[in-house]
Design goal:
globular, two-stranded antiparallel sheet, 4 strands, alpha+beta, 79 residues
């Protein structure tokens, strides 16, 4: 875990991301998604292509489900 400081940039706020993480996640010079889940956590991930029939609400619901049950799904995958 790394502690980062939130700082003001113009009329917005920002948090720096370690360059190693940016490279590992393929975020360098690429669009990214910024999501806030029901637990108040902020998630940053590479922007993925979304099919036209899949709504942003559905994508967010699936992302929240995956985040909440990641440990259970991981254990199931190991079986």
């Amino acid at each position: 875990m790394q502690v980062r400081t939130v700082f003001k940039v113009g009329n917005s706020f920002a948090v720096s991301i370690p360059s190693e993480w940016v490279r590992q996640m393929n975020l360098e010079d690429q669009p990214g998604e910024l999501l806030r889940n029901d637990r108040g956590e902020i998630l940053v991930k590479p922007l993925r292509e979304v099919l036209p029939d899949i709504t942003p609400d559905f994508v967010q619901a699936v992302d929240c489900f995956m985040a909440e049950y990641a440990d259970v799904l991981g254990r199931l995958a190991e079986r």
